[in-house]
Specification:
- Strands 2, 4, 5, 6, 9, 10 and 11 form a 7-stranded mixed β-sheet that branches. Strands 1-3-8-7 form a 4-stranded antiparallel β-sheet, with no helix packed on it.
- The radius of gyration is 14 Å and the shape is elongated.
- A hairpin with a 7-residue loop joins strand 9 and strand 10.
- It is mainly β.
């Protein structure tokens, strides 16, 4: 059974920083893409950042230059460094990984439970 566990959320003032982590555990054969999504109350979940197995990254326009996604393959972990945070970044942040739990089984998307980020003075 694969589990993704996020950490690092919290309350921060505008202009502050947070670092989110998401570690995958359980039966994992291979991980392809990793990413972060967020969902604010009353809105649809939106893609924040992705990182592929070749370290190619992609960002939501509104976070470019402020957020950085990275991965540690040895630890099956993805990170999201968030700087210059704004109130509009307030949301529940979810990590996702496209992984193969065992040889011979297809890749599937797995999700974390979400971690709250609140940006307020």
């Amino acid at each position: 059974q694969v589990q993704l566990v996020e950490s690092g959320g919290g309350l921060v003032q505008p202009g502050g920083s947070l670092r989110l982590s998401c570690a995958a555990s359980g039966s994992i054969f291979s991980i392809n893409g990793m990413g972060w999504y967020r969902q604010a109350p009353g809105t649809q979940r939106e893609l924040v950042a992705t990182i592929q197995s070749d370290d190619t990254t992609n960002y939501l326009d509104s976070v470019k230059g402020r957020f950085t996604i990275s991965r540690d393959n040895a630890k099956n972990t993805v990170y999201l460094q968030m700087n210059s945070l704004k109130p509009e970044d307030t949301a529940v942040y979810y990590c996702t990984m496209y992984l193969k739990p065992q040889r011979g089984i297809r890749y599937s998307s797995y999700w974390g439970q979400g971690t709250q980020v609140a940006v307020s003075s």
